[in-house]
Specification:
Elements (H helix, E strand, L loop, with lengths): L10 H19 L6 H9 L7 H19 L7 H21 L3 H14 L12 H15 L7 H15 L3 H18 L1 H17 L3 H16 L4 H17 L3 H16 L7 H17 L3 H18 L10 H20 L1 H10 L5 H11 L5 H4 L2 H11 L11 E8 L2 E8 L2 H21 L9 E10 L6 E6 L4 E7 L8 H13 L6 H6 L3 H5 L7 H8 L2 H4 L1 H6 L29 H28 L1 H13 L3 H18 L6 H13 L15 H18 L10 H11 L25
Parallel strand pairs: 2-3, 3-5
Antiparallel strand pairs: 1-2, 4-5
Helix pairs in contact: 1-2, 1-3, 3-4, 3-5, 4-5, 5-6, 6-8, 7-8, 7-9, 8-9, 9-10, 10-11, 11-12, 11-13, 12-13, 12-20, 12-24, 13-14, 13-15, 15-16, 15-17, 20-24, 27-29, 29-31
Length: 739
């Protein structure tokens, strides 16, 4: 390239050579200082070379220069860099105003957007949203510019995501760019971009965002010519859902992949069949469905032998070893804890090929198996750490399926028959998929337990929810006897929303804003779950009578999974929260409430028993304003109760009057009026009032302790305070005023 740096060469070629030399120096030797003269030469006539590509090169080279300066490999006066940034800004503004068509505008806007990522002066905090605005305008113009390199732009966004992670604005731009790429290069090409982004996000641990990108890739490939890639996505989705503790969602996607591959024998999809059955068995295994795993084991072996290119090389198949080892261990544990059930299961596999049956049972009865060495307590603890639900939970007259997502612990019970199990598992899978799709939205969920009875009725044509006892988290979902498909997905969403409403502090209309079509679309793939289930598990294999006559492992003992693979509870500031307002509200509570109980507070502080009660609240972490609010509520209720029965309107009017009128010494309440029971009751009453102050509601399914946790974690109930009079006579030290 140095050979082009001669006076006789055209200036355009010289500038191109400078660009390549400077970049090569930085990439190859991680140094740019020696090329300072060349760099300044390049920018000396940047205002003459105004092609979109030339301006783009100028922005790129300046970006390299900034990066090298920040890393200490380019010794240059930063004012030079800032001046070039300013010069390029002026040039781009001028050229955009004069741009004759969408093609040139799109190219200039792309360069301008990247320029927005560079600081304009020392101390300037770059806001990438300025670049996003330029890129939005760029895409508007690129839609009318057939030659715009949209493929390269999609790749650039992928690189940006590697640095910024699951930035919502970049992902939105990616969707827009994919639409344009799909129009010009086909849906398969756009699907590959979504897949690349998904891989990037998954590698960064951004699982939920990665799943969303996988769903986008799935949609593009299924509607285009990308069957192999689409099935790869289904299996990857199954793996991700299993990693989030959503076993039935994982099973659904794996069953769908297997079913599609079986329908396309000419497509060379052996790899899908060999992998999908493992995903199905692993999903059932982690869900505690050990008997189902036992029933599927011959299918697993058959698919493995038929479709894997080296089926008998066990060292190359750790998943096969794990499947055999885990099933054998569970059968071994069952022999120790429930020999009658173990004998029944042994009898159920008597018709298996003897080599397969003997292989499994010999491993299960191995006297050196680790389950033989563990104490019952240690073994139970180990199982709670390894499984999402109770092992052999698929035995018994009724099934109890437990799972957890986003702070809600679901307990779903249904009749353990062939007909009901298929559709009940489908509903659970759909609920899990919706929960995952909504997990990145703040739905104001307070940690709750919900108990859902799932029934099937031939008299029902639609999915319906009965709120049996919302205050106890009791619901009943009634399913029609026929399979439900994508046309009923809105009904599934409504059922999920009804239960979710019982766990959320949001009003109905606010909660519904969190639902979108994508949340429901993810809950259906290819065919209904129940249909896929029956194709995989014929009725005679299901063995309904054997299931009903036996029971889950240690069914009387509580099983609480400690496997750390749940969708996390949404954290961070709660809905509508504003810290400035929170601090203002605290100050108002002191100024408004103290006068109304001033003399009552003196009585409380003067009495040793009641003072100790207050002190215990403080030691729990309650701030003075919260304790004051509880005291004020107790006092107000005591005074209002003296007035006898009155309407709600009268009650509110009297309460307002009491709050506004200072307490006289004669009105002071005795300390004996403030019992432990009253403090406990009005502590939670106050939480309801606190929710109401933020335009939130008290969810029916949430227990008082869960609401308190919600307020502490998301509304800083125990963190914030303001300087105030030491109303409780604590020894605070610095930071609080005295009486």
């Amino acid at each position: 390239m140095a050979g082009f740096l001669v006076r006789e060469a055209p200036r355009g070629i010289v500038r191109d050579a400078i660009y390549e030399i400077v970049v090569a120096q930085l990439r190859g030797r991680d140094e740019m200082t020696s090329k300072t003269i060349d760099l300044k030469d390049f920018f000396s006539d940047v205002d003459v070379h105004l092609g979109a590509g030339q301006l783009d090169d100028a922005v790129t080279l300046l970006t390299y220069a900034f990066g090298a300066f920040w890393r200490g490999v380019f010794e240059v006066d930063p004012l030079f860099l800032f001046s070039q940034r300013e010069k390029l800004t002026e040039l781009l503004d001028r050229e955009l105003e004069a741009a004759p068509g969408p093609g040139r505008r799109a190219g200039l806007l792309n360069a301008y957007a990247r320029l927005e990522l560079l600081p304009s002066c020392s101390g300037d905090l770059v806001d990438h949203l300025n670049a996003v605005k330029r890129w939005d305008a760029m895409l508007d113009n690129a839609a009318a510019a057939p030659l715009f390199p949209i493929d390269e732009y999609c790749d650039f966004l992928g690189t940006m995501l590697k640095s910024l992670g699951d930035d919502k604005e970049l992902l939105r731009l990616s969707d827009r760019a994919d639409e344009l790429l799909s129009e010009r290069a086909g849906k398969a090409a756009a699907g590959r971009k979504s897949m690349d982004r998904a891989q990037t996000l998954l590698e960064q641990g951004k699982i939920l965002s990665g799943i969303k990108e996988l769903h986008k890739a799935k949609a593009k490939w299924f509607s285009g010519e990308g069957l192999h890639d689409a099935l790869d996505v289904l299996l990857l989705l199954s793996e991700q859902y299993r990693g989030l503790g959503l076993a039935y969602a994982a099973k659904y996607y794996a069953m769908a992949a297997r079913a599609i591959a079986l329908q396309e024998p000419s497509k060379n999809l052996n790899w899908v069949l060999a992998s999908a059955i493992f995903d199905i068995v692993e999903a059932d295994s982690c869900a505690g469905n050990a008997f189902t795993c036992l029933q599927l084991f011959p299918i697993l072996i058959a698919d493995h032998v038929q479709h894997d290119n080296r089926p008998f090389d066990l060292e190359q198949h750790p998943r096969l070893q794990d499947a055999i080892g885990q099933l054998a261990a569970l059968l071994g544990v069952l022999r120790l804890r429930d020999p009658d059930t173990r004998a029944a299961l042994d009898a159920s596999i008597s018709e298996w090929p003897h080599y397969l049956r003997d292989w499994l049972l010999t491993n299960a009865d191995n006297p050196d198996g680790f389950w033989q060495m563990e104490s019952p307590e240690t073994g139970w603890t180990s199982m709670q750490g390894a499984f999402l639900d109770r092992p052999f939970g698929d035995l018994g007259k009724s099934r109890l399926v437990n799972w957890e997502a986003s702070g809600i612990r679901w307990h779903c019970r249904f009749e353990n028959t062939y007909q009901v199990t298929a559709v009940a598992e489908q509903l659970i899978a759909e609920f899990q998929l919706i929960a995952a799709a909504l997990a990145d939205k703040d739905l104001g969920i307070a940690v709750s337990d919900v108990n859902v009875e799932i029934t099937v009725s031939a008299d029902h044509s639609k999915i319906s929810v009965l709120c049996v006892e919302p205050s106890a988290g009791e619901f009943c979902v009634v399913l029609p006897a026929s399979d439900h498909g994508p046309e009923q997905i809105a009904e599934v969403g409504a059922a999920f929303g009804t239960i979710l409403y019982g766990c959320s502090v949001l009003a109905d209309n606010e909660l519904m804003k969190g639902f979108d079509v994508a949340a429901l679309e993810a809950s259906f793939v290819a065919r209904p779950y129940a249909e896929l289930y029956r194709n995989l598990m014929p009725e005679d294999t299901f063995a309904a009578q054997l299931r009903a006559e036996n029971r889950p492992l240690d069914s009387e003992r509580q099983f609480r999974s400690s496997a750390e693979c749940f969708l996390p509870w949404f954290s961070g500031p709660g809905p509508n929260y504003d810290e400035e307002r929170a601090v203002t509200d605290i100050g108002l509570r002191y100024s408004r409430l103290i006068p109304g109980v001033r003399h009552t507070l003196t009585n409380l502080v003067s009495n040793q028993s009641s003072y100790q009660r207050l002190l215990r609240l403080r030691e729990e972490g309650l701030q003075d304003w919260e304790i004051l609010s509880i005291v004020s509520n107790i006092a107000m209720n005591a005074r209002l109760s003296e007035r006898g029965s009155q309407s709600s309107k009268e009650w509110k009017a009297h309460a307002q009057t009491m709050m506004e009128r200072p307490e006289s010494p004669a009105e002071a309440l005795d300390s004996g009026s403030f019992t432990d029971e009253l403090f406990s009751t009005y502590r939670h009453v106050y939480h309801g009032a606190f929710l109401n102050s933020w335009q939130l509601r008290y969810p029916e399914c949430a227990r008082p302790a869960a609401i308190e946790k919600f307020l502490v974690k998301r509304y800083r109930l125990r963190d914030l305070d303001v300087e105030h009079v030491n109303i409780f006579q604590w020894d605070y030290g610095i930071g609080h005023a005295d009486h």
